Amino acid sequence: MSLESSVVEGFVADTATPGFLQNYYGHLAPEDTAEYRPEDLEARVGAHLSVGYARRQREAIISVGTHGGCLGHLRGH
Question: Which of 1, 16, 66, 73 is surrounded by the most beta carbons within 10 Å?
Fold first, then answer.
């Protein structure tokens, strides 16, 4: 594991607290998240945080995922 990925994982672990997750999904109706397992919702937040942490200014990163997980990231300017 690279130092960068270790730092990103630490950032995600420190940031994705239960209170943060509740706030992150707070705008959704309970029935909109009912079909997802809690670990899937946490993984989506983790992917969003890690992409945001690594994104450089003026760079777009698009995360492509499926119901079961993330397929990959695309970087562009």
Answer: 16
